[in-house]
Each structure stands twice: as structure tokens, then as C-alpha cells.
Here is the input.
Amino acid sequence: MKILVPVKRVIDYNVKVRVKADGTGVDLANVKMSMNPFDEIAVEEAMRLKEAGKATEVIAVSCGVTACQETLRTAMAIGADRSILVETDVELQPLAVAKLLAAVARKEAPQLIILGKQAIDDDANQTGQMLAALLGWSQATFASKVVIDGDKATVTREVDGGLETIAISLPAIVTTDLRLNEPRYATLPNIMKAKKKPLEVVKPADLGVDVAPRLATVTVTEPPKRSAGIKVADIAQLVDKLKNEAKVIA
Amino acid sequence: MSSYVAPLKDMMFVLTELAGLDKVAALPGYEEATTDVVEAILDESAKFTGGVLAPLNYSGDQEGAKWADKAVTMPKGFKEAYAQFVDNGWNALGGNPEHGGQGLPKVVSAAVQEMWKSSNMSFSLCPLLTLGAIEALELAGTDAQKAMYLPNMISGKWTGTMNITEPQAGSDLAAIRSRAEPQGDGTYRIFGNKIFITYGDHDMAENTIHLVLARTPGAPEGVKGISLFVVPKFMVNADGSLGARNDAYCVSIEHKLGIHASPTCVMVHGDNGGAVGTLVGKENEGLKYMFVMMNAARFAVGLEGLAITERAYQHAVAYARDRVQGRAIEGSASGVAIIKHPDIRRMLMLMRSNAEAMRALAYSVAAAHDAAARHPDAAERAHNQAYVDLMIPVVKGWSTESGNELSYLGVQVHGGMGFVEETGAAQFMRDARITTIYEGTTGIQANDLMGRKIAREGGATVKAVIGMMQQTRGLLAQQPGAQFVAIGTALERGIAALSQAADYVVANYGKDVRAVAAGAVPFLRLMGVVSGGWMMARAALVAQAKIAGGDADPFFPAKIATAHFYADHVMAAAAGLASQVVQGGASALALDEAMF
Here is the structure.
């Protein structure tokens, strides 16, 4: 069984995000970029399935600028066997990414696609679902446990108020939640080997996909600064404010 | 406790722009050390050290290594962290590929080791000693010894030690008394007591390989009669499995000012019939081999001065941003974070600028080490080796003395809370304290620098280095702006002070060695301060070129500002240090011994 693992290059989780002065987006110049943490969990899960003998090959795929090669090398350092970069300078929105991934999936014919439930930059939480719809495959989102048995998968999902366990048929899409696993640290020999693993570069046009953005960003602003608090005179005033100003108690 | 975030950006800047990583990667055998691979290695090393080693630093200090029944138990979490360290291949980074190492150059391992030391200095001493022992076996071991020990030592499955010091033989190894009696079967029985043996015993690895200095029967007195032996904790069978427990035991550990998690052992060899060992290299040449590993260890301890400064700096910055205390001196409506106060700012800049200068000097020496080992041209090898030999005592002595001063400042930034152990700033100061002492005190480094490295060759190498500094000075004069005027002027004055002091040393070492030696440590510091200023000036030139080329990364103006601060605040000491060297000898020695 082949597993396809889409990975996204995002602003590093340690970086303090700043909005560009002109409000057109987040300032990414000279900031550290890393693999989306939910995608790291996806790579780890794919590796565990391979090590358990359930999968034969793990292929990482990323869509975006040339520098995404670094993210793919990271995936290969963790253990992915090879990788594919769909290279473009166009700003990619979830639908475009899903279309690109669907095209790659039709070519590679994996049984399983594991990806992060969302990326920590735009938090869209759409790509996995759109991909499942485009391919017409089963989907199990927000996975906290994945068990593969033949051509079926049993997936425990983190849902509001608890866990839901579903059985799906392969091929399928699984999106990872935080508690699925704890990603390993790459070993030094694997970091060295990653350089020599195959990395194929294709263009969206090669896949016959139009990646032009369908949505326009109007403006990006920082969250409002927290303003100074006030001192209340007594409990009655506090309760009044909670009720009528903050409206947090009835 | 505080987190550690490896300064990847500055590390990569120094590697690629100042240390010449591309030139190192062009050397035979180092082809894999390309910028992208090195960046990937440092990236993962940063994650590992920040995520696994750093969280054990404070708890390891508080708990300490424990001794009972001739065995050491490490603080909680160390055994697991070490297993992960070995499994992930970090111990094998620079190891010989013939025995399972990755064979990466020293310039790369310097950066990775800085992270080990910043994240957890006590932990880092275990691989430091193993790497030293590997070096000695590579240099002088027989093929059988190499086959028996190296693969497991390079992987880190077994650790190594250096059993050098004895109660009466500290800085003076001529006084070593441990003896080795040949058994007629190629093995020796070792008898003797060794002290200050770092990681002499612990529970993180299944075997410990001791390298022990001892005398054979009838060996000449003094340093010419010392041989080196390899003595495993557990004997190794022909098939590589572990055999009987050898007669080499840790009988106690020291209670120390710092590095509490690093067991400093008293070792007794031969209380029960003799510890079985085999000779490494030739009889009576042990000290020569020991000095090879000592040079590597001295460089590594120099990195500790840098590493502890970096960690203390990060800790102090985090506190200074967070701690609100006092109004701004120019007036403010309410209290401000102490990072706004000019004196706090000055202290943080001292920590930052010195750390950057030390890093640049240490990595440049590591790169020269790689060229000295691998350059195809013999003249290039020789010239790089001379630079390494000259600079090792400077990297060791200057970086560790600075590390002490700067971790002291780290405590100062914290005010009263810095004096409280729970804050964590005090540990860096305590851990730093050993670095100016072990692997040769600052005084020993300074004597080595002045005697062996400068006076003996008439100052040839130091003059060549001064020549390179003057070239940098010339380039500074062509740059625009007041910052470069300040950096250039300070470097010019630093060069003048260093030249004057070096000329004095060369001219007077033969005539009045006691007066010259009284100024040895000021000379070493002068050499460190000016070399650091030279490195910061080179960094500023690179930054200026990047800015001129349209690079808008704020890292570059910050680099120039930091170099400017170093020029104003650190280089100012150069003239005073030179005067201590040139004029201070007589007064230092004026009092009769009886007057003390």
C-alpha cells in the first residue's frame, strides 16, 4: 500500500506573526519557515504504518514555491521514501491545493492520503475534505487513532464532546488531530540520506490544474490590543457588568 | 524552567559568511557538508536539544548525580535522553565513516556541540569525553583496539573517559604514579588512583572505556615515562559481547559548585588484583597522545564559554522583557519592563556581542582545523594548522573567562531573583565556573600561548594574523557611516595594542621570562578581545554588503549595531590589557614571597 502525505510549508510556530504594514497579509520575509505541525503528525503516522508493515511506500508531496523542497527534505529525513513538489509562485488556496493533490493521487494511486486537519497559518481546515470530495473517496477527519485492516480503516475522530469511531473503506483521506501521535526527531543518518532521495518537481500545468485564486483577500489586521481593565466598586457592579456588558452570564 | 532556542540564524551566518563552509565542503571527504544539508542538521539538532536536553538542565542540577555501592546513578531523565541521543545518531556526527561515523567536518560539529552545551552542559560532558577518547584511539590504537572499541564508542553505545589527574598530579603530569605491570600476554594490570574523572561511572551506557595514564616498570622519571592504556569497565570478548567486570571502580564523586549532573569520579584501579588494560601506541609516549585529545577538548571547553553565555543571555532577555520595575529614566507614565533601562540594555549587549564574537572566532578555528586536516595543498595545511595551534588557547581561555563574566551579568540582570536558585540564572554562573579551570586553567592556556605558540617561533603566526586584521581594517575604512568609523578606529587601536604586546613578548621572553609570564593572562585576553573585534568587524562588512545588495533582513543592521557596540565597549579594554602586559610584570613580582 502506498501512502501519500501532503505537507505544507508554513511560518514556524515559534515565530511571532506580524501583519504587513499595508494590510495585504502576514510578513513572511526573513522569518523561519517549517513544516505545518499537523502535517508532521501525518508523516509520523505514515511512517508508523510503514514500520508496522501496513504500507510499502510513503510519498510526501508539497505545493508551492521552490523553498518547499526544504519541507519535503524534512519529510524524507523523518522517513518518507520520495517526494513530489508541485511548484508554483501563485498564492494557493485550499481548493487549488486539493485539485493539485487529486491530480497527484490519480497518478500515484495511493490507498491512503494522510494530511494535517489544518495548517497553522490560515487555519482553513478545508483541503482534506475538498480532496475527498474531488476524488470521491471516504474521509475521516480529526483522527486521533488509525487502524488499518485490509481494505478497511477504523478511525477514531475527535469531535465536540467526545470521540467518534468510524469504519471507512480504502482508498481514503485521513486528516490528523493533535493527539494522533507524537512525531519523532529525525535521526542524523536519515537527514543525510534525505538529500539523496528522489524529489520530483512538476508544474500545475503538467497536472492540468488551474490554480488561480478564487477568493480575494480584502484586508489582514492584527487582533485588537488588550485594553486596560477597570476596578469595580463591589460585587454587585461586577455581576452587573458580567450580565449586561460582557453578557457572559444570564 | 527557561527554554533554549538555538540561535540558528547567527550560526548559519557565521558558518557560511565568516567560517567559509563552502570552502570546507570543497575539501576531500567533506563533500556532503553542503549548506542545505548543514542547515537541515542544525535545524533538527535545535529541535532535539531544545526539546530533549534543555528540559533536563535545571532538574539535573537540582537532583545531581548520585553515588552508592561503587556506582553512579544519573539524575532522572538522563538515561532516556542519552539513549535517544545515541539512537538519533548525534554522537557519530564527526566520527570516522570506517567505524560507522558520519564523517562531518569539525566546523559543523562545533555548531552542533554548541547546542549540546547551551542546552545542558552537564550532559554534553559525556559525549565530550567519549569523543576525546575516540580521537586518541584513532591516533594511536592498534587495528584490534580500533575494531574492538571504536564502532560502539562512535555510536555512543559505549562512553569514554580520560583518566589523567591524580591527587599529586594535576597541572603537573610528571608526578603521575599509577603503574602498569605487563602480564606477558600483551595485557597489563593497572594500579593507581585517579581523581576528577568526568563520567568515570554512570548508568547511561552498558560499558565505559577508560583511557588511563600510567607508568610501566623501569619507565623514565617525569613526563617521558608515561604510557597510555585502554581499560574497559567490562572486558570485551572476541565476539564483541561483554565479559567480566574489570577492576576499575568509582569509589566516590565530588560535591561541586556546578555541573551537578556530571559525575566527577574518584577512580580506583587495581584494588582487587589489577585492572586489565592494553597499551595504546608506544610505551612512554602517552602524553603525546593525550595532548592530541587535550587540544580537541580545550577547543570544546572554549565552546562551553560561548554556549553558557548564549543560554544566560537568552534567559536574561526573557526576564528583562517580562519584568516591570521602575519608571523609564527619562520619565514614563507607569512602570516599564527593565529591558527599557539603559544599564540593562548595556549588560544584554555585552552578553550578545561577546557571544557573537566568540562564536565567530570558534567556528573560524574549527574551519581552519578542517583545512589543516584535509587541504590538498601542504602549505595550506601548515598555515591553517599554525592558526589553529595559536588560537586554541585563545578560544579556550578567552571564551571561558568571558563566559564567567557574562553569566555573572546574567544573574545581575535578574536582580534579587537572580540570586535565587529557582530562577535558573545562577546555575549558568555556577556551571561556567569550572570552564576556566579544567583542561588546563587560564594561566596554563596563557603560558602555552605566549611560550609555545608565540615566543618559540618569534611571533610568526601572530604577526600573520595581525596582517589579516589589518586587511579587514582597510576594508572598514571604505565603508560609509559613523558606525564603520567607530568599528574601524577601535580595530586599529586594538591591532596597535596587540602588536605592541606581541612584540614585547617576543623580545623579552628569553630575557625576562618571569616578567613576561606575569602578563600572560592579560595577553591572552587581549588576543581574545581583539580577535573577537576582528571577527565582528568582518561580520559587519558582510552585513553591509548584504544591505547594499538590497537585502532587507533586519538581522544585518542588527549585526552592524552589535559590532559597533563591541567596538565601543569591549575593544576599549585592549589598550589597558596591553599596558598590563608591557608594564605590569615588575610590580606583579615586586613583593618578596615572605610578604604574602
